[in-house]
Amino acid sequence: MANATRPGGGYRKGDGAQEENLFRRSDYFRSLDVGLDEIQEESCERSHCTSQCDLDSYFDSQKMYPMDEYGAIYTSAMAAYRDPMLNGTMLAPKYAVGMRKKIENIFAIAYHHKHDYLVLSALGCGAFRNPPA
């Protein structure tokens, strides 16, 4: 549930896929929509995970609210391939290997940060036209 080039996908124009719904129904958009920083009093921390599992900050920023007071939900989003090549109803081998690595990265990031629970969803089975199996 991630767009590789535009966080939130088409949530501003009303697109209705999973990522767009998460952005509209939660505070998720505040952490990834850079365009909102100009109108917010406080910006939030944005970072990405490198291939060595290090976090690199995109911006120097202030937290939006005190995490110790409100708690936090940590999100990790991984973009699926858009319109991948298929062999029948399965991903072509090149894409299957890459998709497996993406899924393994989600679990590796959670393990590295000692997360107890993961909420997972279909990966690219909607607008990006990946097969469900």
Question: What does this protein look like?
Answer:
InterPro entries: Macro_dom-like, PARG_cat_microbial. This is Microbial-type PARG catalytic domain-containing protein. Residues 1-43 form the Microbial-type PARG catalytic domain. It holds the Pfam family PARG_cat_microb. With 133 residues, the chain is an alpha+beta fold. It is 28% helix and 8% strand. It is built from four helices and four strands; from the N terminus they run ααββαββα. The protein has helices at 18-25, 28-32, 67-70, 93-112, and strands spanning 47-49, 55-57, 86-87, 90-91. A two-stranded antiparallel ribbon has the order 1-2. A hairpin with a 2-residue loop joins strand 3 (86-87) and strand 4 (90-91).
Brief description of this entry?
By secondary structure, the chain is α+β, with helices and mostly antiparallel strands. The protein has four helices and four strands, in the order ααββαββα.
Give the helices and strands, then pairings.
Layout: H1 18-25, H2 28-32, E1 47-49, E2 55-57, H3 67-70, E3 86-87, E4 90-91, H4 93-112
Antiparallel strand pairs: 1-2, 3-4
